[in-house]
From TrEMBL:
Domain RNA polymerase sigma factor 70 region 4 type: 130-177
Keyword Transcription found: yes
Family: Belongs to the sigma-70 factor family. ECF subfamily.
Keywords assigned by UniProt, alphabetized: Sigma factor, Transcription, Transcription regulation
PANTHER family to which the protein is assigned, alphabetical: RNA POLYMERASE ECF-TYPE SIGMA FACTO (PTHR43133), RNA POLYMERASE SIGMA-70 FACTOR ECF SUBFAMILY (PTHR43133:SF46)
Listed Pfam families: Sigma70_r2 (PF04542), Sigma70_r4_2 (PF08281)
Protein's organism: Niastella koreensis
Annotated protein name in UniProt: RNA polymerase, sigma-24 subunit, ECF subfamily
Gene3D superfamilies xref list: 1.10.1740.10, Winged helix-like DNA-binding domain superfamily/Winged helix DNA-binding domain (1.10.10.10)
UniProt domain RNA polymerase sigma-70 region: residue ranges: 31-96
Keyword Transcription regulation in annotation: yes
């Protein structure tokens, strides 16, 4: 400790505050030596992360050092420092909680992608059930259904291709849809 800092340690708090306002490095060093550990332990009671506590206390000292002439302390220096650390701890805890909340929300937003996988699996399951049902349909219904579904033929076009009456094609397509719907409803009941 230098001669000037020893002299500064005997000063009342009001004088130390005034010297800090005048950017007196020795007064600042004294303040740092006197309060660093006490503020660190105070912060650690709430934030159980020593690195975060060091950051919180360090930020306060940096702010005190840079604010210099603008520093306004209306209470005792000790009370000011502990209230300032308490507020910084609250801000840290709030920001940490907010961060965790955002992480949780982001995780929940990712959940639909898991649901998309589940939906894709369900879609493939339904598609397999449709294919199985179509394969087991009578030939006349299967042919009409496949021309309509896969080739997007109209009833009239199917009637021309198969050389069947339009009414017959309509009935066969309705019957194919009925078989398919009935089988899918049965499938839904088993899920």
């Amino acid at each position: 400790m230098s001669k000037k800092s020893i002299q500064t340690s005997a000063l009342p708090e009001e004088d130390i505050i005034e010297l800090i306002r005048q950017n007196d490095n020795f007064a600042f060093d004294l303040l740092y030596e006197k309060y660093w550990n006490r503020l660190l332990h105070f912060a650690f009671r709430y934030v159980k992360d020593s690195y975060a506590c060091q950051e919180i206390v360090q930020e306060l000292f940096v702010q005190l050092h840079t604010s210099g002439p603008r520093l306004k302390i209306n209470s005792s220096l000790s009370a000011y420092l502990f209230v300032a650390i308490r507020n910084r701890v609250y801000n840290y805890l709030r920001n940490t909680a907010l961060y965790k909340k955002h992480i949780t929300l982001a995780g929940k937003k990712l959940m639909p992608s898991h649901n998309n996988v589940e939906q894709a699996i369900n879609f493939m399951d339904v598609q397999n059930k449709i294919n199985d049902t179509v394969c087991h349909m009578p030939e006349k219904y299967r042919t009409v259904y496949l021309l309509h579904d896969q080739n997007h033929f109209t009833v009239k076009k199917i009637s021309e291709v198969l050389n069947r009456p339009v009414n017959t094609v309509e009935k066969q397509l309705r019957k194919a849809m009925y078989i398919l719907r009935d089988r899918l409803v049965m499938h839904e009941m088993t899920i």
